[in-house]
Amino acid sequence: MTTNLDKYAQAFVESFDVDPAVLPTCSYRSIAVWDSIGHMGLMANLEEKFGITLETEDIIDFSSFEKGKEILRKYSVEL
Amino acid sequence: MWSFSSYPERVAAVCDSGGEITYGELDSFADTIRDAVPPRRLVFCLCSNTLGSLAGYTAFRSNRMVPLLLSSELNQALLDQLIQRYRPAYLWAPRESQRGYPVRLSQFGYELLETRLMPPPLHDELALLLTTSGSTGSPNLVRLSYDNLEANTASIVEYLGVTDRERPITTLPMEYSYGLSIINSHLEAGATLLLTTNGLMQKEFWTFFKERRATSFGGVPYTYEMLARLRFSGMTLPSLKTMTQAGGKLSADLQRQFAQLAQATGRRFFVMYGQTEATARISYLPPERLLDKCGSIGIAIPGGELSVADADGELVYRGRNVALGYAVSAGDLIKGSENGGVLATGDIGRRDADGYFYISGRKKRFIKIFGNRVNLDEVERLIQGAFPDLGVACAGSDDHMAIFLTGNHEAGEVKRFISEKTGLNPAAFAVTLVPAIPRNDAGKTLYAQLEAVPCGR
What we know:
The complex is a heterodimer. Chain A is mostly helical. In chain A, helix 1 packs antiparallel against helix 2. Chain B has a domain of about 80 residues: GMP Synthetase, Chain A, domain 3 (2-Layer Sandwich). Chain B has eleven helices and 25 strands. Chain B has a five-stranded mixed β-sheet, covered by helices on one side. A five-stranded mixed β-sheet of chain B has the order 11-12-13-14-15, with helices on both faces. Classes of the chains: A mainly alpha, B alpha/beta. Chains A and B meet through helix 2 and helix 3 of A and helix 6, helix 7 and helix 10 of B.
């Protein structure tokens, strides 16, 4: 069964074409593709996967893989 | 040239780590540079939106050294190629960037490295060199004169009404002609630049924006898409008075959206057009005409003249800001003006009855990606060179390049390769696998047929 955590990780893999193993240490600009453009793609992907609309404050606060989990919990996404 | 000495106490720039520099300090750093190195030498500035990068740039220009502005993030192989080709006497680089050259002096987090290469002779009028696009690895440079910079800067200060009370926040790279034009015009007016290496999608950017009460920023079409995505209309930014847009055509929908928002909030929104070959700016749409001339690039900047060529509809610009010409090697740096103040823009357009200009197409095969000009034929050649067994064709529209490939599983590899080579986010490239690249009898690619193929990712 696909868990929310799998879906969450999948959004990163799809957006950034990265090895899932490096995700826990991934943060904004830690990889070249996670720049402002990559960030926009990631946010769109997450919104679509979880059927949510992220607030401005949360989009700009979404600075790492770990931080993002905290943010999604605010939208009642259990991770 | 600048007259920093008439407002030495004014703060020229504040950076997001808290440091600041006055115009007087920029001047004294120029003296330090003058005492350390001979004038009229080529220097590569590895730029970032930081105090060190800014202080180096202004000091070199004050001393009539000739800077080539490059990104501090340019990959080492491309930088080495440029060094070999142009033989700069010095590099101005972020400290501890490990470039392997002896350090001549070090200040503001940057250091001056001495290459000991045989420097090329420089034409007397040559003031500055910029690259033609972000970086497709092309060594082509635009040669700008002192007169080019003076004319374009004065013109921008005039039509934007830049005063010493402005505090523009950086949203564009300093080595990019549009980003640099904002820096130049605000230094000219004695304003205070807000320098940040953070981007729109980062909390730190907005914190700095609000704390330092930014009054303006510029953006390429993609910047405005990001702002729309961030629901910019809901943000409270009382200090913001002016927004400018250039670097490609903003969609009519976004133009209307931002024009209406500007009206409602009492801000000015300028849609502009330009090229590095014209130093930066060519035309602008006065904010009061934004809605009734939606989609127009406006009218020529003060001192310039825009017209449509009878023969093919190409937009032609005349003005003191038209670059001297290009350089492809060190030997070109001794050349004077080859353009004679006339620039064939490569854009096809028309002029309406009121004298407003509109762009309808391009003469050459290039698109703009995130504000950077990318030549489609050049990208084809790059891919073909690295993957000689594949059939390759590139097409697409601004911000969306369509790469067509024959072959089975190299799609991801090609995308990674071209993103790395151009330094552009892979989101800009969509790869579609096709059984064959359609060509006519003469071997020319039939792009129209490819554009009918449904695109993959």
